[in-house]
Specification:
The structure is a homodimer of 518-residue chains. By secondary structure, the first copy, chain A, is an alpha/beta fold. Chain A has 3 domains: 3-164, Thiamin diphosphate (ThDP)-binding fold, Pyr/PP domains (Rossmann fold, 3-Layer(aba) Sandwich), CATH 3.40.50.970; 184-314, TPP-binding domain (Rossmann fold, 3-Layer(aba) Sandwich); 341-515, Thiamin diphosphate (ThDP)-binding fold, Pyr/PP domains (Rossmann fold, 3-Layer(aba) Sandwich). Chain A contains 20 helices and 18 strands. The first copy, chain A, has helices at 3-13, 28-33, 48-62, 72-88, 115-119, 132-147, 160-164, 184-195, 211-224, 253-260, 304-314, 341-351, 367-372, 392-402, 414-417, 423-430, 445-453, 461-465, 476-482, 493-504; strands at residues 18-21, 41-44, 66-71, 93-99, 125-127, 153-159, 200-204, 227-230, 237-239, 247-248, 265-269, 293-298, 356-361, 379-382, 408-413, 434-440, 487-490, 510-515. The first copy, chain A, has a 7-stranded mixed β-sheet, with helices on both faces. A 6-stranded parallel β-sheet of chain A has the order 2-1-3-4-6-5, with helices on both faces. A 5-stranded parallel β-sheet of chain A has the order 10-8-7-11-12, with helices on one face. At the A-B interface, helix 2, helix 4, helix 5, helix 7 and helix 16 of A face helix 2, helix 4, helix 5, helix 7 and helix 16 of B.
């Protein structure tokens, strides 16, 4: 058994049975081993950022890491932006980076580079086994380390000769760390805050955005008269179907400040403290109101569930009626009228299939769809946790691979879509049940807003041209067709409703270019 | 004057007047300053790898750095693969990476990451000015450092508050390092090798692949009875039009070994010693024949030109007749027949316009085009110096921006084209005179060869499917049209000849999908 075969067997034995890959010469033994270890499902990507974003989506939906197969430093660099997002989402990912043979490194061949420095940007664990004897144990450790908690990206560098050498052994799964127990004093501090009767809120993120735990937090909050606010960009929010809907912290700092105003206690469960996404001149970065106490009840490394139970036992009040989502009743799908973010939101809210998964990289045009779909059936909402655009389509691919029985809807801004359009091809190859809606406004629209918010001069023609992606117009219907995904254009709200309904009813991927052009 | 304005002015004063960019919120003041410092030409890219590859192409053709504008760590990661290539090509590039405001860093907002670690992979110089007082001097240093010699990638991190702060000063250009003088003993060593009468060759790369210096080396080699071999992947080879054509070191190690067999002296001028691109089981990585002496006459940091003059004065013999390219006479363009790498080569050799620039990322299908076009008029041939695929289209864009009066031909493998297809959109926007020929064989064809060469098991269906990109077929005509580039398909050699002739005669970009499918 060679190293690659033992590596694949160890990964599968450790529960990692999917590999998103973009291989090169140094990974050929890994690729060849796919015919030996057939439990590993390989998914080819034409660009590494597709593979890494897909691994993130897969992890968010399964709680398990997928593996990546990448080609030396440049391949890892290409995967890097979406590994940054995976890091911020605390998604477990095992990145396997093929490298030159150990003895080849000293020759400084063209593709040689310092892989470790790259990996340190987004990776919480790194190893480069120097021989086949070390490989499988390192792989088992990489899987265990990826689980965390919290979940993280691990990087296992695989030198070509380690991959091809014979005499490899399979390693048993490695032991994983447990969630940390929250100490009593920490729980008591939050309990005292809730008992104080002063204005308080939970800020929930990570595991606390999953329905079961979020429901218990909501119940506790209702009993104590506290609010429940989700982080701005949750990795996975389970919602719809009458489940509790938290407030969502606004992206814009000035709106978030207004939202948090008056709070005297903010209890963090799986979320970091609220900070501005960017800095703005003469606006604060720290969004916690002056005088408000921040209570770090539980991070993603902690046993949030037990912590909430312990908190509940200390807080008086009847943890009775779960607050129901307020908001609007579920709308009808629009049959006509202009296509804008409002009617887009209505169409999505009306037509979203039960148990759908939404990959939301809608940036400036999707907020109404998020708000409206609180009234839809049960679904998961995945957001851009790390802020690095180019995640939406790969994330949708990975979610579809993870959950073949569910429909995935990618709400995709046009500018952001152009970072990883190659994901469409992998969707076509895998027959992934993804409905892509490209929100086509021919602009980096959010930057036109940000240009004003950062108090830059309004900009003349030269500046504005850098925020305009409408010259030439991108024809996403043509691009998708070229990559094997059936596509159509929707120019008014009725066309969008019809296209959504058709796509949701049709197996495999399809793309709708929603023409928001004014 | 704010920091961004002073930065742009400093760059322009230092001779950097082009910026390939993909900005975000933290770069808005830089973007706004484009309307103040109008000598800076901004070129928008939809993906950062397009910008970095274009900067490389620009540098190869002008000898001057372009600047890049990138958005935090993920933007730099996306640029990374082509910055790796730029590093290997010794191309000067000034990468400006917008970052959070200095005071915002401690809040660990979603896009925060360790930019320095990323930059260290490919960057030979790094600075992060902490205040507007330090900015312009750092920018002037970044430009000077980019020049080297040898040329390198420099990374200037631009915190948002440093960019927007008022009171900035413009800095004068910084002093650049000079080329190092080659010491007499080093020259004498190479002279003795040439005088020995034993089999000798120059291995030329970098600056020694430019026509004037290469011609002098060829003349000297002819006088001394030595061979002239170019490195496998020269950054810029000036050739055609009757200029001296060196042998080219083969990519395949076994062929390179045969090529070098019998040499007793190898004199390096601007090239590293010959090593195998990858390691292969039971094949050597070091390609220098046993017993052959390697003479490091000049690296890219040295004054190669003076070194060759000094060498010439020490070597007997008449440095008379410059060897003329042997090879075939210039072929006729094929008017019919199957389209394969041979007829592709004929068509390119026959039709290549004088003074064209060829961006060669043809991988497995383009060798005949390279060999054949030695008989064409004068032109530059740019190759994948760093080996990280996804460079070809961006490099062509950058070369076209650098040389608006010359036609650029991108010979582009289909698999590699899919890493940075967004370059097509920038070509359309800029009206760049680029002819893209996608060599469409629906396969990572080189990997099918490499799978055998690394002695991996031949692979079953699962392995082969990871090397096959024909399910679904990519329709590059549709993709190009969707990105604003007129495109057509060529299914036989006559169609290719006609399409090439039309494209060469038509301003602006166009794409030809050369259907090599069997």
């Amino acid at each position: 058994m060679n190293g690659a075969q033992a590596l694949l067997r160890t990964l599968v034995d450790s529960g990692v049975d999917t590999c998103f890959m973009n291989p090169g010469t140094s990974e050929m033994h890994f690729v060849a081993a796919l015919d030996t270890v057939t439990e590993m499902r390989p998914v080819l990507a034409l660009f590494e950022g597709v593979a890494s974003g897909a691994a993130d989506g897969y992890a968010r939906m399964t709680g398990r890491p997928a593996s990546l197969l990448l080609h030396l430093g440049p391949g890892l660099a290409n995967a890097g932006a979406n590994l940054h997002n995976a890091r911020r989402a605390a998604s477990p990912v095992v990145a396997i980076v093929g490298d030159h043979a150990t003895y080849h490194e000293r020759f400084d061949a063209p593709l040689q580079s310092d892989i470790r420095s790259l990996a340190s940007n987004f990776s919480g664990w790194y190893a480069r086994p120097a021989s086949v004897d070390e490989l499988s144990a390192a792989a088992a450790e990489a899987v265990a380390a990826a689980y965390g908690p919290p979940g993280r990206v691990t990087t296992l560098v695989l030198p070509a000769d380690v991959s091809w050498s014979e005499g490899a052994q399979v390693s048993a799964p490695a032991e994983r760390d447990k969630l940390a127990k929250i100490d009593d004093a920490t729980v008591e501090q939050s309990a005292a805050a809730l008992r104080s009767g002063r204005p308080a809120a939970f800020l929930v993120g990570g595991p606390a955005c999953r329905a079961e735990l979020l429901g218990r937090i909501a119940s506790l909050a209702a009993a104590a008269g506290a609010r429940v606010i989700s982080e701005t960009l949750p990795a996975r929010l389970e919602r719809g179907g009458g489940r509790f809907e938290p407030e969502r912290l606004a992206y814009l700092a000035e709106m978030a400040i207004a939202q948090l105003e008056g709070l005297e206690h903010l209890i963090l469960v799986g979320a970091p403290p609220p900070v501005s996404f960017f800095a703005y001149p003469s606006k604060p970065s720290w969004l916690v109101p002056s005088g408000c106490h921040v209570h770090h009840l539980a991070s993603g490394a902690d046993d949030c569930s037990a912590g909430i139970d312990a908190l509940g036992s200390l807080v008086a009040g009847v943890p009775g009626a779960l607050p129901r989502p307020g908001g609007e009743p579920r709308p009808q799908a629009p049959q006509s009228g202009p296509l804008d973010s409002r009617t887009l939101g209505q169409a999505v809210a009306a037509l979203l299939p039960d148990d759908a998964i939404v990959s939301d990289e809608s940036i400036s045009s999707g907020l109404a769809a998020f708000i409206g779909s609180a009234s839809a059936g049960p679904h998961d909402w995945l957001t851009l946790s790390g802020g690095a655009i180019g995640q939406g389509l790969p994330l949708a691919l990975g979610a579809a691979v993870a959950c073949p029985d569910r429909r995935v809807l990618a709400l995709q801004a046009d500018g952001s879509a152009m970072y990883t359009p190659q994901a469409l091809w992998s969707m076509a190859r895998e027959g992934a049940d993804v409905t892509v809606v490209v929100l086509s406004n021919r602009s980096y629209a959010i930057l036109n807003m940000e240009l004003r918010r950062v108090e830059a001069s309004p900009g003349g023609d030269r500046a504005r041209r850098m925020l305009d992606i409408g010259d030439p117009d991108i024809d996403f219907v043509a691009v998708a067709a070229g990559l094997g995904v059936p596509a159509r254009r929707a120019s008014d709200a009725g066309e969008l409703s019809a296209a959504l309904a058709e796509s949701f009813a049709t197996p495999g991927p399809s793309l709708i270019e929603a023409d928001l052009h004014r």
